[in-house]
Amino acid sequence: MSTEILVNASTHEARAAVVENGVLQEVFLERASRRGLISNIYKGRVSRVLPGMQAAFIEIGMERTAFLHASDIFDPRHAETGIEQPRTENIRSLVAEGNEILVQVVKDPLGTKGARLTTYITLPSRYLVFMPKGRGVGVSARIENERERERLRAAVLAGAEPEENAAPRRKMRRRRPCAPT
Q1: How does pLDDT run across 99-108, given as a tens digit for each residue?
Q2: Residues 119-138, buried b or exposed e (16+ Cβ, 10 A)?
Q3: What topology is assigned to 41-118 in CATH?
Q4: Are 58 and 39 within 8 A, CB to CB?
Q5: Is residue 104 within 8 Å of 115, Cβ to Cβ?
Q6: How far is CA 148 from the centre of its chain?
Q7: Could you give the residue range(s) of every CATH 2.40.50.140 domain in the chain?
């Protein structure tokens, strides 16, 4: 089985195609004029907390600060059970001005408003979704066959490392510096 990835990039757009055994499987197209921020992950700093709105504004290096609502903030106190209760506490108990926070863009900035953020980070691949702070296994909705979805879910759970949500790691070999010639 041969797999090829074909890439064509210019100043205005980038195209990539996945070809398996001579048959086109997927095409990706990105135009510079339509490039958005959705799914980008940033390490931001809380610049302002508004308890009346249950929201915070996060500086992520853009022209405008981005918006983070309290319901989009992962609460580590619920990490053990994986079940979050409806939010009743003040946003000030979750974030404070000056805190650094890892966020993902869920909605592009529009007009005078900044981007909408979440702390529930997701890293989708072709068939699975990795959720570093989530529990369980996310299987792509592209797979319609329920039996195949369960097979993939079971395979991932069977191969999971004991450490919760540990990403696969590769051991790096140190290279000795070359002696000057």
Answers
A1: 999 999 999 8
A2: bbbbeeeeebeebebbeebb
A3: OB fold (Dihydrolipoamide Acetyltransferase, E2P) (2.40.50)
A4: no
A5: no
A6: 24
A7: 41-118
User: How far apart are the C-alpha atoms of 153 and 150, rounded to whole Å?
Assistant: 5
pLDDT digits (tens, 9 = 90+) for 55-79: 999 999 888 999 999 888 887 766 5
What distance in Å separates the CA atoms of residue 20 and residue 2, rounded to the nearest whole number?
Answer: 6
Q: Decide: 97 and 65 in contact? Cβ < 8 Å.
A: no
Please state, in angstroms and rounded to a whole number, the distance separating the CA atoms of residues 139 and 131.
11
* Token pair recorded at residue 71: 């319901």
pTM of the model: 0.64
Structure tokens at 179: 């002696």
DSSP 168: P
The answer to whether the beta carbons of residues 4 and 19 sit under 8 Å apart is yes
Question: In whole angstroms, what is the distance from residue 89 CA to residue 87 CA?
Answer: 6
Confidence check: pLDDT of 144 > 90: no
Q: How far is CA 64 from CA 68, 112, 160, in A?
A: 13, 8, 40
Q: Containing H/E element for 160?
A: none
Question: What is the reported pLDDT for 139?
Answer: 81
